[in-house]
From TrEMBL:
Alphabetical list of InterPro entries matching this protein: Peptidase_M1_aminopeptidases, Peptidase_M1_dom, Peptidase_M4/M1_CTD_sf
Official protein name in the record: Aminopeptidase
Pfam families: Peptidase_M1 (PF01433)
UniProt keyword terms in alphabetical order: Aminopeptidase, Hydrolase, Protease
Length: 693
């Protein structure tokens, strides 16, 4: 490898990532796995541990030399290798390293990972090869060399040009990052013709049909061939190789007028699911991500049915695991699982393959942004597809204990799938649908991609661009959603209905009398109703105060009032006679996250009104606020967030008046338990019955 120092610093050493060392005995990755004693241990985990202890895996670095064959001093720390240069590499200068190394490829059956091989039903192999060479670590302007060991967090690497030659038996079909340089040597004339037809096809065309693949899979190779690839300005290089690949492809024209190829390679085990959904899912990704982020920049995106766990992404090459059952049937979960994972892994071409965020530190910057867009793409693909990270899906999970903020280093995530993926996706959905609006969000999101394509953004670069390009202050939102583990729970606690004091003593006296008459009376007063009192029996005991109640108005009161009103401005006098209803709504923030209060008010005449209150209402008091609603109508009911936009975790306190929670109860009865006498002395029939119970 040739390394060019594009930094302004003199580099006296280089760091390389030895990802395979994760599988060496005593690697930090292995030793930092805790195995809680729960009375059980899976067969698979026990086999994995023994396999790693065998010492058969991880890199064997035989030699590291410069271009003249001179050995260079190295030091290996866990999954990182430092190579000391004979003299510091000046800015703009370049140097070459030659590394002689080998490692054993893991069997997917024994240790499922991001790169492995498997033996298929017809006995032919299927390889997915990635993280297969010592990769140069990133040297950054914000943190120098990124030397963090490989525990789980994916790599922090930089862009490079690749020239790769892979020697395989001639029966194999390959797919890889980059552009095949010698198609006339490794593809048949028919295959090349089909590829050309696929460029303008309206649906995927077979480049290798299932029948041809079945034949290739079992045919004896009589020679070896070299597949030669070049890739420019990509972070990484991966490839897939199998003699039994079925291959389909369909061209797609990007908005900027280029033809890019969507293609899928899979063994017979992937059928009938793969030929139906993999390539169309890639096309969907081109479309949705092209619109929301930027046009796909590379000549192809390829989806491989690989022997790995779930899915994994590389530039231009996505590895995806889902397969139908052996009998060709598949569940709803597998179907949408395949479409979803293809979109997700192909979507990673944008994050982090183009927008090159540091995965080893900030998992959410690629997984979260990608999960947000893959849900948009999945929803555009099929309305029946189950969405997983709508705000309401996150609401309850965000109340659970033992969470870490999104802004936590990747390896320290407790529940990656929630914190790094779904919560970020839900947060971005709330920004887009509720806080910023689609127009402002979409512009800012594209601007982020435009600014940071083929560069290395930090979290603040994303936050800053979203604010800067939209003109919307998001500090409150980012602080709560990205830096805390609070959740959303806004409660409508109390409503007070007020009307304005007219300052007319007669009107006010009448109002007070009516209030008193309508006020609920105590049980004692109710039971004493009609009781004969002393003043009834002896009327001489009644005087002036029995004839004039406490609200009686004196002429002097009227004069004082007239004087006071006369001093008011005409507009002030008008307001005294307003007669409107003034509703004071008391809200409390029980979850901790400040959010807009999305009110929907229903009036007595059946009409409804949306009254969103911005999140800034919480700026002077983060736990309690009161909002005044002035209306000539009578409010019948009020709801907060009726369209489930904000991930409010407790909807029972969102309604006035409160609504019953509806649920279904299952009736049950206890199953009879046999005692020991019955078990020992009972007949065989009884035994069978009790087992069946
Ligand atoms: Zn991902």
């Amino acid at each position: 490898m040739r390394y060019e120092n594009r930094s302004p610093d003199r580099l006296s050493y280089l760091w390389l990532q030895l990802d395979q060392n994760r599988f060496k005995p005593h690697s930090t990755s292995q030793e930092s796995l805790s195995d809680p004693l729960a009375g059980r241990l899976s067969y698979a985990r026990l086999r994995e541990m023994r396999l790693i202890e065998s010492g058969d895996f991880g890199y064997q670095i035989k030699a590291v030399t410069d271009q003249n064959g001179k050995a260079l001093p190295t030091m290996i720390t866990d999954s990182m290798m430092r190579v000391d240069l004979p003299q510091p590499l000046a800015p703009g200068a370049s140097t070459s390293l030659i590394i002689d190394y080998q490692y054993n490829i893991l069997s997917a059956k024994e240790l499922s990972n991001r790169t492995a091989y498997e033996i298929l039903q017809d006995g032919s192999p299927n390889y997915f090869i990635s993280m297969w060479y010592p990769r140069l670590a990133a040297y950054t302007d914000y943190g120098g060399w990124i030397t963090k060991a490989f525990l789980y967090g994916e790599p922090a690497i930089d862009f490079a040009d690749f020239d790769v030659s892979i020697t395989v038996p001639e029966t194999f079909t390959l797919a890889a990052t980059g552009v095949l340089q010698n198609p006339d040597k490794v593809l048949s004339r028919t295959q090349r013709q089909r590829l050309e037809q696929a460029e303008t096809a309206q649906k995927p065309l077979f480049i290798i049909t299932p029948d041809e693949a079945a034949e290739n899979a079992v045919r004896q190779a009589d020679s070896e061939v070299i597949w030669h690839y070049k890739a420019e300005n990509v972070r990484d290089f991966a490839f897939a190789a199998a003699p039994g690949f079925i291959w389909d492809a369909q061209g797609y024209e990007t908005a900027d007028g280029r033809m890019v190829m969507a293609q899928s390679l899979y063994p017979a085990e992937g059928e009938p699911l793969w030929s139906r959904y993999s390539t169309p899912a890639i096309i969907q990704t081109f479309e949705t991500y092209g619109r929301m982020a930027m046009d796909y920049p590379w000549p192809h995106a390829t989806s491989i049915n690989a022997p790995i766990r779930s899915g994994m992404e590389y530039p231009m090459l996505a590895a995806n695991a889902p397969r139908p059952e052996k009998d060709g049937t598949y569940s709803r979960r597998t179907k949408y699982g395949l479409i979803g994972v293809v979109i997700h892994e192909v979507g990673h071409n944008w994050f982090p393959m183009i927008v090159n965020s540091d995965e080893r530190h900030w998992l959410w910057m690629d997984e979260g942004l990608n999960s947000f867009l893959d849900e948009l793409a999945l929803a555009e693909f099929d309305p029946d597809a189950p969405l997983r990270s709508e705000p309401r899906d996150l609401a309850e999970r965000m109340t659970r204990p033992n969470q870490v903020p999104i802004m936590t280093q990747s390896d320290a995530y407790i529940n990656r799938g929630i914190t790094g993926y779904a919560k970020v996706s839900a947060a971005l959905t709330i920004l887009r649908e509720t806080v910023m609006g689609r127009e402002a969000f979409d512009f800012a999101f594209r601007e982020y991609v435009r600014r940071w394509a083929f560069k290395r953004p930090q979290p603040a670069d994303f936050f800053r661009t979203m604010e800067d390009a939209s003109g919307i202050d998001l500090d409150w939102f980012l602080r709560g959603w990205f830096y805390s583990t609070d959740h959303v729970d806004i409660s409508l606690d109390q409503i007070t209905l007020a009307t304005i004091d007219t300052k007319n003593p007669d009107v006010e006296a009448e109002w007070k009398r009516a209030q008193k008459a309508e006020a609920p009376r105590s049980i004692t007063l109710q039971r004493d109703e009609g009781m004969e009192r002393r003043t009834d029996r002896e009327p001489h005991l009644r005087d002036f105060y029995n004839a004039h109640d406490e609200f009686t108005v004196a002429p002097s009161d009227r004069k004082a009032s007239e004087k006071l009103i006369a001093k008011l401005e005409p507009w002030e006098q008008e307001l005294l006679a307003l007669g409107s209803n003034l509703y004071f709504l008391d809200f409390s923030n029980k979850g901790g996250l400040v959010m807009p209060i999305l009110l929907e008010i229903t009036y007595e005449d059946g009409s409804t009104e949306k009254r969103p209150i911005p999140a800034e209402i919480w700026r002077s008091n983060q736990s309690h606020v009161t909002k005044l609603i002035i209306t000539d109508q009578t409010i019948q009911s009020i709801s907060i967030d009726p369209n489930l936009e904000t991930a409010d975790a407790d909807m029972t306190n969102n309604h006035w008046p409160r609504k019953p929670v509806e649920t279904r109860l299952e009736l049950f009865k206890r199953a009879p338990q046999k005692n020991l006498m019955q078990k020992l002395e009972g007949g065989a029939d009884d035994e069978a019955k009790s087992n069946g119970g």
